[in-house]
Amino acid sequence: MNKLGIYIHWPYCISKCPYCDFNSHKIQNYDPNEWLSAYENQIKYFKEYLVSQNLKNIKLSSIFFGGGTPSLMPPKLVEKVLLFINKLFNFDKNIEITLESNPTNLELNKISDFKSAGVNRVSLGVQGLNDTDLKYLGRLHNASETFIVLDLMQKIINNISVDLIYALSCQNLEIWNHELQTFLKNFSIKHLSAYQLVIEKGTKFYHLFNRGELKTVSDNLYKEFYFSTKNILKDNKFDQYEISNFSKPNFFSKHNTIYWKSDNWIGIGPGAISRIWNNKKERIEFENFKKPETWLKNCLQNKINLKKILTINLDASEQEILMMGLRLNEGVDLNKLQHRTFLNNDAMLHIQKQGIINIRKNKLMINENYFNVHDYIVRKIIDNYLSS
Amino acid sequence: MEDIKKIRNFSIIAHIDHGKSTLADRLIQECGALQDREMKEQVLDNMDIERERGITIKAQTVRLKYRHDDGETYTLNLIDTPGHVDFSYEVSRSLSACEGSLLIVDSSQGVEAQTLANVYQAIDADHEIVTVLNKIDLPASEPERIKKQIDEVIGLPGEEAIEVSAKTGAGIKSVLSSLVEKLPPPQGKIDNQLKAMLIDSWFDPYLGILILVRIVDGKLFKGQKIRFMSTGSSYTVDSLGIFTPKILNVESMGPGEIGFFTASVKTVADCNVGDTITDDKKPTNSMLDGFKPSIPVVFCGLFPTDSADFSDLKDALEKLSLNDSSFSFEAETSAALGFGFRCGFLGLLHMEIIRERLTREFNLELISTAPSVVYEIKKVNGEIVKLHNPADLPDANNLDHIQEPWITATIFVPDQYLGSVLTLCTERRGEQVDLSYVGTRAMLVYKLPLNEVVFDFYDRLKSVSSGYASFDYQFDKYRLGDLVKVSILVNGDQVDALAMITNKDHAEKRGRAICLKLKELIPRQLFKVALQAAIGSKVIARETISAVRKDVTAKCYGGDISRKRKLLEKQKAGKKKMRQFGQVEIPQNAFFEALKI
User: Fold this and answer.
1) Are B122 and B91 in contact (CB under 8 A)?
2) Which of A200, A375, A381 to mutate to test the interface with B (most CBs of B within 10 A)?
3) If contacts are CB pairs under 8 Å, which of residues 325-364 in chain A contact chain B?
4) Within 13 Å of residue B465, how many CA atoms lie on the same side as its CB?
5) How far apart are CA B420 and CA B77, in angstroms?
C-alpha cells in the first residue's frame, strides 16, 4: 500500500447526461482564482495529514482530473493546480496525469495547452459509435465529429483512453460487434473502458425506467454483449486487466489501479473521497462536501472542514480490498488480507473446485469467464452462511 | 359456597361467525358483571390472535349472577368454546363440565357443519340444549326457515328457538331465563369425598399454573391437601378463584361450581386434562370418566433460522405447552435444516397459531417444513411404528405396508357450488357416503384420507365455493394405503426436509408440481441446478434452474467503494434468509411453500 494518487474533481458539464449519477452540474459562472485557491488549500490539507502520518516522502504515481467535464476547465487552471502539486509532492518519474475530456472541437482546440500544462493521458468520453446510440445516451456530439477529434487528438497525445457504453436496448449485437471491430481497425487505441449501461438511482434513465418508458436488455443478451465485446478486444491484442477495462501492454490506467489495489489516494474537489493508510495501518476515509458551493466556500477558509472523516474497521477494510481486488484479472493479493475472518472457506472451496475462482502464488482471482457475476461471487465468498 | 340448586352450568356452541363471542359479551353485560367502560369487544377472547382472527382458541369461563323472575339470584357458569374444527377436543372438555348447552345458529345462514358436529357432541354428553337464533336484526334473517332447518337437520324443536340479536341486545333476557328454567341444576353432595374434574390448566405469569376445575362432589378449600389421581402427586391449595370475568378469590368451592385453584404446581405434565382431583387424606375410590385426551394429528418440523436460537426455541415451546397441552414436540435433526423440533398439532389452524405465537410472542424466526399426518407402518419383522416424519420411512424391502388415517368429513355447500366441491373431494381420493339437501344447500358426507386434507383442502374448499362451504371432520380409522415416499433431490442430493408421502397414483403429478414450484422459489446460482423428484432410485420429474447471467457492477472506482460495500452488507442480510444446502442456496420459505401445491 505504498502508492499514492491524487484525484481532482471538476463538477461542471455543459449538460447532464441521462445515465450519469456522478456529482456533476450544469456549468455556471465561476471564478477560476477561487477554485485554484480552494484546490490548493485542500491539497495542502492532505499534505499536512500525510506528513503527520510519516508519509511525507511517498511518491506521487498519478493525478486524475475527473468530473463533470474537466476538459471545460481553463488550461491555465489545470497548469496552476499541477504546479502547486509539484511544489508539495515528489512526482514519480513515470507519473500519469489524466484528464477526462469530451470528444469535441472545443477540446481539440485546448489539447496542446493541456499537454503543456503537464497532462500526458486523455480519457475521452466517446461513449457511442453511431449517432443513434449517442442520441439515446443524450450526448451532444455526433459520431463523425468524434472520430475526427479522436484522430487529431491522437497526434498530440499518444496515450488516449476511450470510454464506451454498450448493451443498450436500441443496439443489435451483430451491428455492435461490427462497429467495434471497425473502430478498433481505424484507430490505434491504447486503452479502452467498455461499460454496460447501468440504470443508476436518481438519473433521468432511472425515472424513465420506473415509468416503463425505457427498456433494458435481458440478462441473457447482456451476457452475450459482455463476452463478445471481451473477445473482440482480446482478438485485437488488448489485455483485459479489469472487468470493464482493456489496454495495450503497459498502457493500463495507473490511477484507477490504485483504487482496485486499495492503495492511497487523495480526493480533491466537491464530493471527492480519499482513502489513506495511516501510521497505525488503519484505513481512513475522507469525504468532501458534495455541493460545489459548499465545498468551495469551506475550502476558501483558513481552516477547512471535511464532511466526514472515519476509520474504516478492519473487517470492512479487508472486504473492500477483496471486493475491489477481485475486479482485476490478476486478482487480489492474499497477503493484504491478514484478518479475513469474514471469508467463507467452505463456499470458496466449492467454487474453487469448479474453477470459478483460482488461487495462484498467493493471489485469489476470479476466472474471467465469470466476470459477469463478480458481485455474486464476492457475496458468496464473504458471506457468513448459516451452515447446515 | 353456592346453593347447588341455583347453579346452571352451560357451554356455548356455534359455527364460526355465528356470533358466539358477541352473545357471550351481551350475557356478561346483561348480568352487570362488567361496567360498560370495561367492556371491550369479545371479552373472552384473551389472546391478540383470537381477537384479530375473530376466533376462540382456548375455552374461557365466566361466572354470572342473574336475578330471575322468581325473585331468586342464580349463578350461571358460562364456558365459551372454540368454533374451529381443530379445537373440537376443547369443546368436548367444556361440555363435560356442564349440564347444558346454548346452541347458537345464525338466522341468516342457518345450520353449518360445525353447528352439527358440536350439537351432536352436546347430545352425546346428555346436555339439555337451549337454541338461539342470532342476528335477527339482519335484513337477510329468515327465522322461520331456519327453525324448520333445526327441526329437520338437527332434530331439535325449532319452534322453541329464541330469537336474539346479540348486536342490539334483543332477546337476551329470554335467553337467561330459559337457561334457568330449562337446564337442570348440577348433581353432587357436599358431604361426599372431593371429586373434581380437571378441565384445563395454563400458566399465568403472575399466579403460576392455574388449574381450572369443576367440582363434582365434596368441597375444595384453601389450605387443603389434594391429590391428582392419575399421577398420585399431591399439593396444597394456595388459592381459589373464579372469573367474573375478572379474577375473584374465594375461600372454597362446592359441588357444581367451576373455578380455578393454584397449588404451586411446577409442571403442567402433572395436570392431565380430564384427571380427577381428590382430597389427599380422604380420597375417593372412584375416578371420574374423564374424556379422551387430544391427540396431535398433524406434524411438521420447526427449525430456528439462526441455529444459535435453538435453545430459545426450546424454551418457547416449553412455555407455550404450559398453556396448551394439546401440542407435542420432540427434538429433530435435519441434514438440510440442522437442529429443530418435530411438533404435533391438532390441525392446520392450530399449527398456524402456534407458529404465529412463536414468532410474535417470542420473536423467533422459524423455518417450517410442510405438514404431514401420522402413518402407521408395519415392518417386515412385524413391528408397528407410528411415522411422524416422511423422511423416516423405512426402505421398501423393510416395509410390509403403510396405513394412513381417514376422516369423515361433513360439508355444507350452496347448490351452485356443489359440482366443484364434488370434484375437489374426488381429486382428494374422497369416497361419498351421503348427499342430501337442506333447503337449497347440499350436505355432503365424505370419507377422505387426512393426508389429502391436511395441507390446503380447507383453503381450496373456501375458494371453489366462494367462501360459502362449511366443513367439519372427525377421525374415522386407519386404512391400508397405496403410498410411496417421494424424495426431492437438489443437484443429486436428497433434501430430507422436502420428502413427502403420497398416493402412488398422484406421485408423478405431485413430484412434477414440486419441482416446478422449487424452480420458482430457488434463485439462480453460479451454475445450473438440477431438481428431481424420485421414488426410490426412479426419477419421476425433473426441472433445471439455469445459472445466473448478470450480477456485476460495471463501473467501480474510488468514489463508489463505500456505497458498494454498504450494498454488499445489505445483500448479505438478505442472504440470511437462505440455507446453504450442498452447493445450492435454498430460501427458507421453500421448505414450506414447495409442498403447497
Assistant:
1) no
2) A375
3) 327, 346-347, 350-351, 354, 356
4) 26
5) 43
- Asked whether the beta carbons of residue B580 and residue A316 sit closer than 8 angstroms, the reply is no
Q: Cα–chain-centroid distance for residue A46?
A: 21
* The three three-digit cell numbers of residue B176, written as one number: 337467561
Q: What is the pLDDT of residues B442-466, one digit of tens each?
A: 999 999 999 888 877 888 888 898 8
Question: What secondary structure does DSSP assign to B494-530, as a single string?
Answer: E-GGG-EEEEHHHHHHHHHHHHHHHHHHSPP-SS-EE
d(CA A377, CA A380): 5
Beta bridge partners of B479: B404
Nearest CA among B567, B501, B580 for reference residue B535: B501
Instruction: Give contacts of A323 with chain B, Cβ < 8 Å.
Output: 561, 564-565, 568
**Cell 493471489 maps to which residue?**
A363
**Distance between alpha carbon A79 and the CA centroid of its chain, in Å?**
22
For the stretch A148-201, pLDDT in tens is 999 999 999 999 999 999 999 999 999 999 999 999 999 999 999 999 999 999
What's the one-letter identity of residue B343? C
How far away is chain B from the Cα of A89, in angstroms, using its nearest Cα?
21
Grid coordinates representing A133 are 446510440
Give pLDDT tens digits for B352-362: 888 888 988 88
Q: What is chain A's alpha carbon radius of gyration, rounded to the nearest angstrom?
A: 21
Closest CA to B414 of B367, B371, B461, B447: B461
More confident residue, B480 or B20: B480
Contacts of A376 in chain B (CB under 8 A): 526, 548, 551-552
- Using CA atoms, how far residue B172 sits from B24, B41, B42, B56, B133, in Å, is 10, 17, 16, 21, 11
Number of alpha carbons in the 13 Å side-chain half-sphere of residue A256: 26
Cα B31 to Cα A54, B4, B73, B186, distances in angstroms: 87, 19, 11, 21
CA distance A100 to A118: 14
Mutate to test the interface with A, among B552, B560, B569, B576 (most CBs of A within 10 A): B552
User: Looking at per-residue confidence, does B360 or A385 come out higher?
Assistant: B360
CB-count burial class (<10 Å; 0-12, 13-18, 19+) for B120? middle
How many other C-beta atoms lie within 10 A of the C-beta of residue A316?
18
Beta carbons of B124 and B154 less than 8 angstroms apart: no
Task: Give the Cα separation of A223 and B27 in Å (integer).
Answer: 71
How many interchain CB pairs under 8 A, A with B? Answer: 116
Residue corresponding to grid cell 424452480: B519
Q: pLDDT tens digits for B88-128?
A: 666 777 888 899 999 999 999 888 887 887 888 888 888 99
- Minimal CA–CA distance to B559: which of A371, A5, A23? A23
How far is it, in rounded angstroms, from Cα B505 to Cα B452? 13
Show the CA angle centred on residue B27, arms to residues B24 and B32, nearest 5°: 130
Best B556, B564, B567, B579 residue to mutate vs chain A (most A CBs within 10 Å): B556
Do B552 and A371 make contact, defined as CB atoms within 8 angstroms?
Answer: yes
Q: Which of residues 12-41 of A touch B (CB under 8 A)?
A: 22-23
Look at the alpha carbons of B156, B162, B168, B169 in this order and tell me if their dihedral is positive or negative: negative
Q: Is A385 helix (H, G, I), strand (E, B) or coil?
A: coil
Paired residues of A266 in beta bridges: A6
Q: Is the pLDDT of residue A386 over 50?
A: no
Chain B hits for A275, CB-CB cut-off 8 Å, are 558, 561
Q: Are A240 and A230 in contact (CB under 8 A)?
A: yes
Q: Which helix (H) or strand (E) holds B247?
A: strand B247-250
CA distance B595 to chain A (A): 21
Mapping DSSP onto H, E and C, the string for B424-489 reads HHHHCCCEEEEEEEECCEEEEEEEEEHHHHCCCHHHHHHHHCCCCCEEEEEEEEEEEECEEEEEEE
B572 → chain A, closest CA residue: A383
